[in-house]
Every structure is written in structure tokens, then in C-alpha cells.
Specification:
single chain; 254 residues; two-stranded antiparallel ribbon; mainly alpha; Four Helix Bundle (Hemerythrin (Met), subunit A); Arc Repressor Mutant, subunit A
Length: 254
């Protein structure tokens, strides 16, 4: 399956070949890689060197390892940037607002492009999500639907880079404060504002009004930043949304 590589650039050569196999369809998400012995022989490298490469690929989210040593192509390659982005976040001692600002920039562009690319089927799916949001009081379900809505808009944008980075930045936010979407989507004083923005956003996208879609998404993301800034750490702890693994200095709203 693979050709021998230049041992002076082992990682890059292995990565390049795996990406080529994914691009041409020889390797698909969820497919198992050949056994380590076979891989090492095909690449012409030692098994210890191969293991180091596989560890790096796993860190990037391109492959996953399971008990027993088997290695697979990740089932969802959209998540491959989550871990590297998380490392950068920690390296710069960033705050949750930094992640939200990154998301805001990506979400706005995604909405702009989605309005240009929205098909009748896309429009029907967006309206269905809005209808489900309107029909349920369950904050967990509403949080999941909120995620579905933003993901669908990113998918409609038809830009795989925006989708991947947006997915990673969104996951980063939720890893820091688990359940934050559900918290915001509670049917309390903030929910009507968010629901209204969602409805206006979907209307702009389905009417193919790119400028309005971008404007409403900007407004929506600014609202999320504002609401987060109004929430105290005590409230997050009491609502069981704070992730115990997240340092308070990184999640403290300012």
C-alpha cells in the first residue's frame, strides 16, 4: 500500500502518503491501517520510529489507536484540529473569550457563504431545526439543536477549512465549560433573544441575503460573549457546567 520513504523526513513522508490515500479514497474514515510490522516494512523504517509517527498522527486527530495496538483513520476528520488548537490555547494561556472571538470570526464568514450556497434541501433542514427548537423545553435537547444549527450552517458554507477550524474551536469552548450551550438555551430571560437571532439568521440564509446573514451572526456571537461575561464562576459551578479539568484562570469570564 505504501512506498519506502526518505528517513530524513520520516513524519512528513508518512503523513503525505496517508493523506494521499485518504484523498484518493484508498483509506476512508474508520479504516484500519495495516499492522505495525507491515507498515514499518512498507515505509522502510523501524517499528519504534513508526510508533513515534503514529503517536504524532494520533495527536493531530488523523488516526486513533485502540487497545491491542491497532490503528485506524479517525472516523470524523473534522475533529483533527481540536487537540492542536487546545495545545495552542494552553500555550498562550488564553481565556474562553479568545476562543469565542475565533469562533465569531469563523461563524460570521460561514453564515455569509451559507447564504450564497443554500439549497432548498438545506433550507428545509435549517427550518426543521428551528421548529424543533421552538417545540421543546428540554435545555439539553435545545443545546444539542443549537450545535446542530451552527454545524449545519458551517456545512452549507461549503468551505472545509472553515468547517474544520470552527468545529475545533467550538469543541474547545465546550471542553472548557461543559454544557455551556444548554445553559444559554434554557427557557429563561436570555432564550427569547437567542431564539430570535436564530430565526432571523435562518431567514437571511434561506433568502440568500449574505450581508444580513453575516450581520445577524455577528450580533448572535456578540450576544453569546456578553452573556458569558455576565455569568459568574459560582453560577457556572452551581449549574454544573464548569469542567473540573479546566483551570479557573482560563475560564474566568472578564
Amino acid at each position: 500500500m505504501f512506498r519506502k520513504i526518505d528517513k530524513t523526513s520520516t513524519f512528513n513522508d508518512v503523513l503525505t502518503q496517508i493523506i494521499e490515500k485518504i484523498q484518493n479514497g484508498e483509506l476512508k474514515p474508520g479504516d484500519a491501517l495495516p499492522a505495525e510490522r507491515i507498515l514499518a516494512e512498507e515505509f522502510g523504517i523501524s517499528r519504534p520510529a513508526l510508533r513515534e509517527v503514529l503517536k504524532a498522527l494520533s495527536l493531530l486527530g488523523i488516526t486513533v489507536s485502540v487497545h491491542g495496538g491497532a490503528n485506524y483513520i479517525a472516523a470524523d476528520l473534522r475533529n483533527c484540529l481540536t487537540e492542536p488548537l487546545s495545545i495552542l490555547f494552553q500555550m498562550y494561556n488564553s481565556k474562553i473569550q479568545d476562543a469565542l472571538q475565533l469562533r465569531g470570526a469563523l461563524e460570521s464568514k460561514a453564515a455569509f457563504l451559507a447564504a450564497q450556497n443554500c439549497t432548498p434541501l438545506d433550507a428545509a433542514e435549517l427550518h426543521l431545526i428551528i421548529a424543533k427548537l421552538d417545540s421543546t423545553q428540554d435545555e439539553k435537547i435545545r443545546g444539542d439543536l443549537d450545535r446542530d444549527l451552527h454545524l449545519k450552517i458551517a456545512q452549507i458554507s461549503a468551505n472545509p477549512l472553515i468547517l474544520s477550524v470552527l468545529n475545533a474551536s467550538s469543541q474547545l469552548t465546550e471542553n472548557m465549560i461543559t454544557g455551556i450551550r444548554s445553559y444559554f438555551m434554557q427557557k429563561n430571560s436570555t432564550a427569547p433573544e437567542i431564539d430570535s437571532q436564530h430565526a432571523r439568521l435562518v431567514h437571511a440564509i434561506t433568502e440568500k441575503d449574505s450581508s444580513l446573514a453575516e450581520k445577524v451572526m455577528n450580533e448572535h456571537m456578540h450576544t453569546i460573549e456578553r452573556l458569558l461575561g455576565e455569568i459568574s464562576i459560582d453560577e457556572l459551578i452551581n449549574s454544573d457546567t464548569l469542567n473540573d479539568n479546566t483551570p479557573a484562570t482560563n475560564s474566568d469570564p472578564v
